[in-house]
Amino acid sequence: MGEQALATGVDWLTALLAMQGLTAKVTAAMIEDEAGYSCWLTIDETSLSSEQVQVLIGEGGSVLDSIQYLANTTLNLGKAEGEQQAFTIELAGYRARRLQELKAMAAEAAEQVLETGKEYELKGLSSAERRQLHHFLKAQDGLTTFSRGKEPDRRLVVCLASEAPDS
């Protein structure tokens, strides 16, 4: 399934870029991450202008997130849950840099909550980023996380496990 998913992902993303009038090489690799194995589709930015790269990433990664959502929805359509493949879209090292930023945010939030005992809210995160932070922080003893609010103002809250609201 992995090799087929890689090839299908490359073809799909290459076609999507072509529909936008962009010609860029797409490569694929299976990467192990916190969720298991993800098919990383990387857009080679060498044939793109810096403006095109910025447009494809979007403010706060919003366009890249949308492309990734489309990839995951389209490429898994009609597949049984066990046959579905997670896809991550990478461009110009954005995902790798953002992952490091998210890990730093998680560490800072954990430190603040453990020092003060007060809950800590993280704003401006996409739903995928909130899931990543939930995952990073679930291994932290004494802490719990939950989401508060409604989109587009949904926030991740980190608090002491003893202070968690009833679900």
Short description:
The chain is of the alpha+beta class and 167 residues long. It has 5 helices and 6 strands, in the order H-E-E-H-H-E-H-E-H-E-E.
The secondary-structure class comes to alpha+beta
| Rg, Cα atoms, Å | 18 Å
Under the CATH scheme, which architecture of the largest domain would be assigned?
Answer: 2-Layer Sandwich
CATH superfamily of the largest domain: K homology (KH) domain
CATH topology of the largest domain: GMP Synthetase, Chain A, domain 3
Based on DSSP secondary structure assignment, what is the total number of beta strands? 6
The span between the termini is 38 Å
In round numbers, the mean pLDDT is: 91
**How large a portion of the residues is in β-strands, by DSSP E?**
15-25%
CATH top level class name of the largest domain: Alpha Beta
Number of DSSP helical runs: 5
Shape: elongated
Helix and strand pattern? HEEHHEHEHEE
Note poorly predicted spans: none
Into which percent range does the helicity of residues fall? 40-55%
Instruction: Give the strand order, joined by hyphens, for the main sheet.
Output: 1-2-3
